[in-house]
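Risk register update: the risk that structure generation would not scale has been downgraded. Supporting records follow, first protein first.
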Amino acid sequence: MTQLERARADEVTEAMERVAEREKEDTEFVRAQVADGQAVIPANDHHDALDPMIIGREFSTKVNANIGNSDETSDLEGELRKLHTAVHYGADTVMDLSTGEGLDPIREANVEHSPVPVGTVPIYEAVKRAGSPEEITHELLLDVIEKQAEQGVDYMTIHAGVLMEHLPLTDGRKTGIVSRGGSLLAKWMEENGMENPLYTKFEEICEIFREHDVTFSLGDGLRPGCLADASDEAQFAELETLGELTRTAWDHGVQVMVEGPGHVPMDQVADNVERQQDVCDGAPFYVLGPLVTDVAPGYDHITSAIGATEAGRAGAAMLCYVTPKEHLGLPEEEDVREGLAAYRIAAHAADVANGREGARDWDDALSEARYAFDWNEQFDLALDPERARSYHDQTLPGDNYREARFCSMCGVEFCSMRIDQDAREAGEMSDIADETDLAGSVAAEVNRPPTGTHDGGRAIREAIDDQWEPPEQSVDD
């Protein structure tokens, strides 16, 4: 039985108990959310290294990191390094989007060593095996999906919502079909003159997923690739189909989340989230970005984190990170780090804005350390301690400056906090309370430091020949 079926049978599983612990929630609440399809626990029966987590709008906002190789770059060791970087900097799930050589060994290594759920897009492997998109057969697709399920993949992006009748709706777009899966399936339908095989074989895919408890991530193959294409007829026609497929998967006892758009103007983000929740009966929404402007190649981790914060505030359950390399190249370790920093900020900011219980305790504790000039505590509480420490020490190195009541921005004479403290000590103003008990906080695990809840990841590091260290900076393990 799947997590969904067991929840419907009023059973609280070990995974649900672990999730309740991590989220600081009641186990019965977790079970009910899963039973109603409002949350998913991606947990393939074959993923032995997994530490279960939950994705749903009533829980802390989660972040996914895309990793993977291409024909041009990266190998198994490089991918394991990316996996460790992702886990170290706080990814709640990872997606292996490899399209190059060694797909099976890379996927198997990720599942073997990853403590977080692993997702894939099986159409990529199907294309590699067939040689070209139009040569894919229904049997090959099902074979690839079943093999990946048996390997322990926790969730898969299935672009089953792209139908032949939707394709003409993309003709007036500026950027056409930008989803890799969507474009591959569009080519297959045009060349073969048949309906999307993932749609026609959807119930058979449901049976495979049910056997191994794989979660659907219903792909948005017609998502907009620029602001001009956002919220158009093609996007919303596919969304209607995804709502139908969500209910079909639930009928088969399979967990579902739904993927959302990539480029959306700021004023349309909340409407997109609310529309998906309505059409898909509250199934968790998993959004890429969204990017709120198209003018910043090289900085799209920022343009998208702005939209991601708004999406999380509006109810998106998981945010798929975007790195500085978006639209430009395959992310490397440092890009993974930058993307995760931006998206952990977005997710946490959304949780604070939504009044998630205890979420702001982290902010308050760091602010108290900052005001007290407790530099080491401030570094330890930082989202990225190595980066914070490095930036401080670039201009004021040495242990003596770790006790200084100023930094290099204002210097001694113009430090506002030092001036404020002196005034209060002189009795000119009242003392400030600084009583945040972060250790006793009721915040979910992802809203408390350290950022990487699986920090250390020794199983991953042991699979890598050289000692792992954060990109560009070493850290004492």
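Supporting record for the second protein:
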Amino acid sequence: MYARKRPEDVASVDIYAAKDLLGSGYRYLDVRTSEEFTKSHVENALNVPYMFITQEGRVKNPEFLTQVASVSKEEDHLVVGCNSGGRSLRACVDLLNAGYEHVTNMEGGYSAWADKGLAGDKPAEELKTYCKFRP
């Protein structure tokens, strides 16, 4: 039997290393809400929200793993990102525990990506969405 993965078991990289991974065949999995994703996202990203905002507060997407499997098909090389890195870290733990082997958390999330000018010409503040998902 294998040990359950925890946040400290997740490989995390900065945005530049994430960009390199994306250039070498990894796929970007954006786990922000669809509203955040629609505002701006990494080119060719897949979007599967890890959490939803409801009247009761934030709720984990109960279909997250099923939805990732349906959109990523056989892809096991994923860079996972959210707004600042919290949701993506938790999503990576779930993916590792579901049997994915090559998942990497992008530290700083899409906010760091936009802050460093990797998201395009617009000012970073126009591209980012501030969320309430921080732990």
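Helices lie at 15-23, 34-39, 64-72, 86-97, 109-115, 124-127. On this basis the risk owner (M.S.) recommends closing the item.
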